[in-house]
Amino acid sequence: MSDPRRRIPRTDHLLADADIAAAAARLGQRRVKTAIVAAQDAARSGRIAPEDVAAMVRCELGDAAASSLRPVLNATGVVVHTNLGRAPLSAAAVAAVVDAAGYVDVELDLAAGTRSRRGTAAREALIAACPAAQDALIVNNGAAALVLATTALAAGGEVIVSRGELIEIGAGFRLPDLITSTGARLREVGTTNRTHARDYAEAIGPDTGAILKVHPSNFRVDGFTAGVHLTELRRLSGNIPVIMDIGSGLLAADPALPDEPDAATALRSGADLVTASADKLLGGPQGGILLGSAELIGRLAGHPLARAVRADKLALAALEATVGGPDAPVSRYVRADPEHLRRRAERLAAQVGGTVVAHDGRVGGGGAPGVPLPGWAVRLPQSLAEPLRTGSPAVLPRVTDGACLIDLRCVPEESDDAVAAAVRAVTACTS
């Protein structure tokens, strides 16, 4: 009797299959060959019949994506969700990224045929949106913005900062470690809860390279507290640069988040330089922005480290489209009407069961800590949370108090039916 393994299709024959060839064009030869080898090995071990090899390869590759990153429907109510990539891009920003994926004039003046300043249009969009800034610089994330500022202005010298602003944020990221890594020395002043103008005045000396003020992220300090306003720091500092790290990236004051600092107010109040993230409340791609005086931005742009932390063309394109385009999703989600959210939750509950309950969303990403965003959610059994996360589409609910909560605040309304279908599918499988 002949060995059935002789009937296993050869690799070249499988690659000639129309469906598999189309998958190779979409995913690449290496990915397809890996799937072919796995199917052939399954046939050799007897786990599948030789005649099923091609079908197994087609099944493996049919719905495969070019990236291992999976789209997720964010049903947590947290707008800037760090584990989900922070801010979702607007349609305008997505289109700009696609346009920038090929060759673009990122550092070229097409009219003159000569090299130009990188990211000029994105920089001009930021200045137009924040006229209090004389100039702007864009780098690859918010931490890089602060590293570049302290390196260029205070390496080998001191950075004065209040002890109450030496923060730690997610994943163990600590501001003191970041600053000292630049070669600057920290000069801590005040106490955890109270810092006064005299503390800064007594610390200023010939080694002072910059004064840094940091907006606390992810927490609030209430009670017996004191801090020093930027206007007072500006008066005390003389010619020493005052840096304000606002964190979440608001360019102008937002009535919906009255306690969240913004770049325009910080600059008008006396900051020489403002640093922030682009992918939080600004609603753009991962990036860091620096806004301030033309002299300081010029010093930072000319520093060797600026090359190492510069933003790529995709981020520049997305940021320009975000700042100059329609409201980003983050802005819409923060301002979502609670009554409209309730009606959406009721429609979902009518389709899948569950109870509609009041549920406060959050800004997330360190923005507006402790500020509730009133809304509603559908309460379902906690057992549905895992299959919803691992299903297709992936739906990420909030798990709390023994329940699975579906909050539609950050779900595009056109995806409500997809959420309902996902819930029905996992309910059918678990019942």
Structural class: alpha/beta
Q: CA-to-CA gap between the ends?
A: 48 Å
Helix amount, in percent?
A: 25-40%
Q: Quick one: overall form?
A: globular
User: Uncertain spans, ≥5 residues at pLDDT below 50?
Assistant: none
Strand content: 15-25%
Total strand segments: 14
- Radius of gyration of CA atoms, rounded to a whole number: 27 Å
Mean pLDDT, nearest integer?
A: 94
Please give the count of helices. Answer: 18
Can you list the strand order of the major beta sheet?
A: 4-10-9-8-7-5-6
Largest β sheet strand count, sense and barrel closure: 7 strands, mixed
Structure description:
The protein has 431 residues and is an alpha/beta fold. Helices cover 39% and strands 16% of the residues. It is built from 18 helices and 14 strands. The strands form three sheets. A seven-stranded mixed beta sheet has the order 4-10-9-8-7-5-6, sandwiched between helices. The protein has a five-stranded mixed beta sheet with strand order 1-13-14-12-11. Strands 2-3 form a two-stranded antiparallel sheet. The two termini are 48 Å apart.
